[in-house]
Specification:
Elements: H1 2-20, H2 34-47, E1 54-58, H3 60-63, H4 71-81, E2 86-88, H5 96-104, E3 115-119, H6 122-125, H7 135-155, E4 160-164, H8 176-187, E5 195-198, H9 201-204, H10 224-242
Parallel strand pairs: 1-2, 1-3, 3-4, 4-5
Length: 262
Amino acid sequence: MKTNLIALLGHAALAAALAQTPPPADQPEARTDRNSQIAHAQLLAKARQGRIDVYFAGDSITRRWGATDYPELLANWRENFFGWNAANFGWGADTLQNILWRLTNGELDGVNPKVAVLLAGTNNVGKTVPPEGDAEKVADITRGLHAILRVIEAKAPDAVIILMGIFPRNDGMAVMPTIDKINRNLSGLADGKRIRYLNINAKLADSKGRLFDGMSHDGLHPTVKGYQVWADALKPIFRELLGPPAKEDLAPPPTGDPSAGR
């Protein structure tokens, strides 16, 4: 009886561990927390409002720039992108799997943007390097980003995709070589036409990946200064593809973190 109980407990522990193991980065995975579900519903509604010529996809680094609960960052967003009909579809703490799920579950359907900007992957990188090395992590994240690109290409066939290199993160400097390896892979996914690779890390950080003063307040998320570096790199591309910004902006109104309003 004791032996059987130990075996059962062992199987239960294994099952629990497997349940907590995320799928590969190229497989969609839904967020199950209520706040993320509400945000998904809001973003679905957003996708059906107004006119969206520039579609931003990503995690919290993307989200905060155009969110109502970060008014200083939202002001910077408007200063840079008003007139280009830009809309932000980032969501905080999303992995590549989560972004892939949102894009395959309606958030890009019928939007037909002319430009899509994708910055994602840092939540899959995390803060530490696996004991066995980062080769599989690098390959997995590359596959995940490639899968997202394929979905964007299919759902927004007329869009030029700007694929951003993953930004430096200083809350875990050990992962900077991992980020550099992934970014080298990402550069190979771009053709310079339909998919353009844009890496601004040399303007955010030094050659070792250490962020310059004022670029981030927590080693991960940009400040207004950091976002302005990103905007300065994007705007010449927007001008090339869309022309100068119009005097009127037709994009849907920004959303925010549902929990911020409770």
